[in-house]
Each structure stands twice: as C-alpha cells, then as structure tokens.
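User: Can you help me understand a structure? I only have the sequence.
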Amino acid sequence: MIFADRLDAGRRLAAALAGYRGRKPVVLAIPRGAVPMAAIVADALDGDLDVVLVHKLCSRWNPEYAIGALDETGWSFVSDASEDDGAWLKDEKTHRLAELRRRRALYSPQQSMADLKGRVVIIVDDGLATGATMRAALHSVRAQAPEWLICAVPVAAPESLAEIRGDADETVCLSAPAGFQAVGQFYRSFEQVEDEEVVDCLRSRRERNGVPAGSGG
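Assistant: Let's start by predicting it. Here is the structure, written out as tokens:
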C-alpha cells in the first residue's frame, strides 16, 4: 500500500477508526510528522487533538537508527544492550530530554495536556520502523490511566508491529509489508514537517474549540 502523502494516510486511517466517532477520543500525535495526520483523524472522529512527546535515542554509530526512546518524564528504555554504555548514553538522554522540554514549551505554551484518565486515547504516528518512539508514547499514556489505548499507524515493519501489540489495547495498522525498509518508502511525498506547521495546526485546533491562547486546558 502506497500513500500519496501524510494527509492521504490520515484520511485512510480516520476511515479505519470510524467506529470511535461519538466516543470523543483524544487523538495524540507523535511530532512532528504525525501531527497533520492526527488532525485529520481528530476532525473525522470529533475528538480532541494534542501531542505526546517522546524522542528516539540514537545509536552512536548511526544517528538514524533508534536504540530506544524516552518520554517527557525521563522514563526510557534501551533495546540494544551493546549501546548501553553509561556516559555516552547519559548524555544522549539529557540532550533528548532537553529537546522534549523545548518542544512542549513551543507547542503548548501555558496549555495543560488533555486529561487522559478514563478516555479513549488514539496515538498516531506516520509509521513504525523500530517502534521505539511508539513504545515510549504508549508507556507515557498508559501511566495516565486511559480507558482504552490504541496505536494507529498507516504502515509498519511486521516485527515492530508484533512487539507493539502487547503495549496497546488495540492496534490499527493499514499495512505491514514484508519488504519494509523505511517508513518513507510507502509515501510518494514524505516531506519533513517543521515546528511551525505543528504550532499552527495545534493553535488552529484550539481556537476552533474556543480555547483562548495562553489558557490552560
């Protein structure tokens, strides 16, 4: 399955999640790429939109390869024991946590995250490669006691999808091809989403919902 772009993937994902319309789900995007997709899903399901901030921990030898991930609380996991060398990994975690705090201040200035307790929560990403960031996102949200926790992605590496299933109450994935190499290979257009687009998307959603800039909630 090939998607034209993230918006196309978002529309197809929204159709697959249509059964949650009427349950007022909270749709959480993993920034930055998933934010435009999650906005489409939230609109289609009449849900709330927010972000869940997690960051992959990168290999010393290949910055594109995730060896684990961490969330805003500082909780982390490392999936590759060979990379778990104290000083270097500590610096990597410190650097990534600072980036998450910068993003929270940028994306949600003076805004508190939606209360997830007892809610249907759908975490959206544009795809699963190693699945590290999704695993951290699911852990972060699970700690907030949602009623039902869903992982929703257009495409995933089959082995990563299998590992994630145990962390979510439900997994919605449109395609898990055997020839998976990278998320971008399944999009005809896969341009980077910048911080400005994320900020604009979240701000417009809040304004539509009548949340004044600078207020909590």
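Now, to help you interpret it: Confidence is low (pLDDT under 50) at residues 213-217. Residues 86-107 form the longest helix (22 residues). Let me know which part you'd like to focus on.
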